[in-house]
Task: inverse folding
């Protein structure tokens, strides 16, 4: 009989103690936080300017005013399309992650060889672009660009 009473009494005392601690204890004091209005407005203004600049660049590319940039974007999107058809997004993300962590280290190690190769490649690309411009792009008729009047 004594063991049964002690088995019932001990958990009841522990439960009462737990309830007293919960009910009597005051809630923690959480400080009031205020964000000043000026930094938020400055950030929003800077963000608006950057977004408008990006939209201007996208409009210029889409309108074809800068033909070299237009063709570069088309080629880049074509390459992304080919890569996307070969593997899924997670694989592309993994490859990009590995490249972003290994290419800078390799460039620092072989900087002289990479720079000389890049100069040769840039000169060759400029030659090829000049030939492409002379044979193809110069034969495309262009009408006069009409500028909108801003009042």
Result:
């Amino acid at each position: 009989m004594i063991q049964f009473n002690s088995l019932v009494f001990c958990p009841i005392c522990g439960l009462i103690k737990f309830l007293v601690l919960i009910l009597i204890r005051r809630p923690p004091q959480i400080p009031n936080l205020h964000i000043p209005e000026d930094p938020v407005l400055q950030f929003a203004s800077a963000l608006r300017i950057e977004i408008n600049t990006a939209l201007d660049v996208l409009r210029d590319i889409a309108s074809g005013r800068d033909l070299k940039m237009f063709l570069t974007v088309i080629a880049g999107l074509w390459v992304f399309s080919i890569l996307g058809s070969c593997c899924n997004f997670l694989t592309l993300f993994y490859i990009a992650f590995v490249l972003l962590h290994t290419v800078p280290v390799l460039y620092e190690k072989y900087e002289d060889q990479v720079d000389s190769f890049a100069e040769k490649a840039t000169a060759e690309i400029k030659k090829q672009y000049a030939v492409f411009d002379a044979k193809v792009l110069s034969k495309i008729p262009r009408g006069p660009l009409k500028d909108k009047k801003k009042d």
In short: The CA atoms of residues 119 and 136 lie 25 Å apart.
